[in-house]
Structure to design on (271 residues):
C-alpha cells in the first residue's frame, strides 16, 4: 500500500511536470510568435487560475495512471512489451482505436457537461478561459478531470496495446490538449483547410467551441461533430482583437516615449 501511495505521488509529479514543461514551452512559443496575444493583466490572472486547476487535475490524472502501472507490473493489464506478441498491423490499429475511443468518450461526456445542470459544476471552470491559452490544457474542475482521467487507464485492461504505442497515444493527448488551446493556429493554413483539417481538430476548430459553446465538442477528430451536426466549422482570424488591443497599447506607450512599438499592425497610428 505504501508503495502504491508513493507511485501515485510520483505519477502526480510526473503528470504535473509534463504539463508545466509542455504548456510552458507552447506559452513561450506563443509569446514569440504572437507577442502580446495573452499579455493583458486579465489574461495573466486567467493563466494563473488555469495553472492552479491544471495542477489539481495532475493529481486526479496521476492516481488512476499509477494504479494501471501498479497492475501492469503484476501482469494484470493488456499492455504488452514484446512486439511479436501481436501482428505488426495491430500497432497502428491499436493507436487509432485508442484515439477513436478516447475521442468518442470525450465527445459524449463533453456534450453531457454542457447540460445546464452539469455545466455550472463540472465544466464552467474550463470555459472561464476566454480566450484559452496553452496553460488551459488541463484546466478542468476536479469533477471534469475525473471523467477525463479514467478512460485510458480503463482501456489498458481491455484492449491490448504495445507500451510504445501507449506512449504515443499519451503524447498525442498532451500535444492536442495544448495546441488546441493556444488561441492561435499553429498549423499552416493549407493543412487546416485541407484534408487534415477536415478530419482532425486543431485550435481553429476548438477555439470555436470556446467562442460559441454549443458546437465543436470533439477532441481529436471531427467525426462525431459532423455525424451529430454539431460541427460549426473553423474560427476565422481568432486572436485578432487581442493583437489589435496589444498594438494600440504599444502604440500609446511608444507615443508617450517608453519605446515599445506595435508589432502586428505597424501601420496603426496612435490616437
Ligand atoms: Zn477547451
Ligand atoms: Zn465545453
Amino acid at each position: 500500500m505504501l508503495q502504491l501511495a508513493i507511485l501515485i505521488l510520483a505519477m502526480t509529479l510526473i503528470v504535473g511536470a509534463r504539463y508545466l514543461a509542455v504548456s510552458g514551452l507552447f506559452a513561450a512559443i506563443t509569446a514569440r510568435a504572437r507577442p502580446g496575444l495573452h499579455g493583458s493583466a486579465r489574461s495573466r490572472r486567467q493563466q494563473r487560475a488555469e495553472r492552479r486547476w491544471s495542477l489539481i487535475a495532475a493529481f486526479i490524472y496521476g492516481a488512476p495512471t499509477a494504479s494501471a502501472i501498479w497492475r501492469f507490473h503484476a501482469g494484470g493489464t493488456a499492455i504488452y512489451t514484446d512486439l511479436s506478441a501481436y501482428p505488426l498491423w495491430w500497432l497502428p490499429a491499436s493507436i487509432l482505436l485508442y484515439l477513436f475511443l478516447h475521442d468518442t468518450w470525450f465527445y459524449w461526456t463533453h456534450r453531457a457537461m454542457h447540460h445546464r445542470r452539469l455545466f455550472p459544476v463540472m465544466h464552467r471552470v474550463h470555459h472561464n478561459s476566454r480566450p484559452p491559452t496553452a496553460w488551459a490544457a488541463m484546466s478542468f474542475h476536479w469533477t471534469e478531470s475525473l471523467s477525463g482521467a479514467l478512460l485510458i487507464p480503463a482501456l489498458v485492461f481491455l484492449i491490448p496495446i504495445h507500451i510504445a504505442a501507449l506512449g504515443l497515444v499519451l503524447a498525442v493527448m498532451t500535444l492536442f490538449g495544448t495546441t488546441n488551446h493556444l488561441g492561435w493556429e499553429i498549423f499552416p493554413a493549407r493543412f487546416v483547410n485541407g484534408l487534415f483539417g477536415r478530419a482532425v481538430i486543431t485550435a481553429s476548430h476548438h477555439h470555436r467551441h470556446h467562442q460559441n459553446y454549443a458546437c465543436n465538442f470533439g477532441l481529436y477528430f471531427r467525426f462525431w461533430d459532423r455525424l451529430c451536426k454539431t460541427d460549426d466549422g473553423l474560427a476565422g482570424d481568432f486572436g485578432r482583437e487581442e493583437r489589435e488591443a496589444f498594438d494600440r497599447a504599444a502604440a500609446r506607450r511608444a507615443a508617450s516615449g517608453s519605446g515599445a512599438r506595435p508589432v502586428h499592425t505597424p501601420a496603426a497610428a496612435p490616437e
